[in-house]
Specification:
By secondary structure, the chain is of the alpha/beta class. The strands form three sheets. Strands 1-9-8-7-4-2-3 form a seven-stranded mixed β-sheet, with helices on both faces. The chain has a three-stranded antiparallel β-sheet with strand order 10-12-11, covered by helices on one side. It has a two-stranded antiparallel ribbon with strand order 5-6. Helix 2 packs across helix 10, helix 5 packs parallel to helix 6 and helix 11 packs parallel to helix 13. It is globular and about 60 Å long. The relative contact order is 0.17.
């Protein structure tokens, strides 16, 4: 019950153990086509350029930035936690100019602050923000922020590593241009893959670049044909075949449950956990309207040692809770309710274990 990786569905582990085939084998190509359709469903998009990058969510983040941002281009970067700051670092490594819009940790991105920055920087080309900030458990209003980006003729770059499959996310309806996620959070797949999707506007920007993408491996112009199925699929790199089996199965499970049903399950489980944590006297970092149901961050009670208690939970209950990151380190716990982990029995175990340890 940490901030990820989450518990993996048994069916997903079984899928990963299937015999390995070549990444150009017709059987594998057929599975890839299904995987792409399932990803489009999870993202709620018809974007043809919707794929799984052969690396974890951090590579998905870099994929979006290195393909879109060219030297000298200005990016409005929203920071309200660790991962917004990582966006800034990506922008600057691309040679871009980051204009930071800061919000307090534990708060969502303030759309008014973003609009103020867009007015002050009419030459900005992008707006980048984290939909679900894993370091704090805060959920930002992606729909409003993407509307603002379009209003000011900017492309949006969205971190959905912790939101995909766990809370409402509608790429096409909200006008998201570039989005990335991770396989190991609410999809409850094995770590190591990053679903990404680019809108036609974003694809056009990639195709019209004046400079080469600084990363050969992450250059999407080199893999578009492999995933699109248009023409002959050519070799780029050896795909992580068995991990893609696992992602296919995880997405099939999500589709079987139903996307909106999965969103509701996460919310229902969150309410049960929140009631129990509140009865124990634990206080949430994020105000209720902006809380992520799948990532619950609470303050550590006064007089309780962080690491020893989490170690006791792991050793005596086989239960993992996450430590605070950045300025929250040593001050908070991050309790995950992601995908297969968002279950009644996990909540009961967590509350019982915390009750015994905190009273002991």
């Amino acid at each position: 019950m940490g901030p990820g990786p989450s518990d993996v569905y048994p069916q997903v582990l079984a899928a990963q153990a299937r015999p390995t085939v070549g990444h150009l084998d017709p059987l594998f190509i057929g599975m890839m086509d299904e995987l792409k359709q399932l990803l489009q469903y999870a993202f709620q998009t018809q974007n043809p350029m919707t794929i799984a990058v052969s690396a974890p969510g951090s590579a998905g983040m870099e994929t979006c930035f290195v393909n879109l941002v060219e030297p000298g281009e200005k990016v409005i970067v929203c920071r309200n936690g660790v991962f917004g700051e990582r966006m800034r670092q990506n922008v600057e490594r691309c040679g871009g100019v980051a204009v930071c819009v800061d919000n307090a940790w534990g708060e969502p991105v303030n759309p008014q602050h973003v609009e103020d920055a867009l007015k002050q920087h009419p030459d900005a080309r992008f707006v980048a923000f984290v939909h679900a900030e894993t370091s704090t458990g805060a959920l930002s209003d992606a729909k409003t922020l993407c509307v603002l980006a379009r209003q000011y003729d900017c492309l949006s770059i969205v971190d959905a590593v912790t939101s995909l499959g766990g809370v409402e996310l509608r790429v096409d309806e909200w006008g998201i241009d570039a989005i990335y996620s991770g396989s190991q959070k609410c999809l409850s797949c094995v770590p190591g893959l990053s679903p990404v999707s680019f809108s036609p506007r974003a694809v056009a920007k990639i195709q019209q670049r004046k400079t080469p993408v600084q990363s050969w491996f992450l250059d999407q112009s080199l893999v578009m044909a492999y995933w699109s199925g248009q023409g002959k699929r050519s070799y780029h790199h050896t795909a992580p075949v068995n991990s893609l089996y696992a992602l296919h199965e995880a997405l099939r499970i999500l589709a079987s449950e139903g996307l909106e049903q999965a969103w509701q399950r996460h919310q229902t489980m969150h309410k049960l956990l929140a009631e129990g944590l509140t009865k124990l006297g634990l206080q949430f970092v994020v105000a209720e309207p902006y809380r992520l149901p799948q990532l619950n961050q609470v303050y550590i009670p006064q007089g309780v040692d962080d690491a020893p208690l989490r170690t006791a939970l792991l050793e005596h209950y086989n239960l993992e809770l996450g430590a605070g990151l950045g300025e929250m380190a040593g001050k908070t716990w991050r309790i995950g309710l992601m995908g297969y982990g968002a279950r009644h029995e996990n909540i009961a175990l967590c509350l019982q274990a915390l009750t015994e340890q905190l009273k002991g």
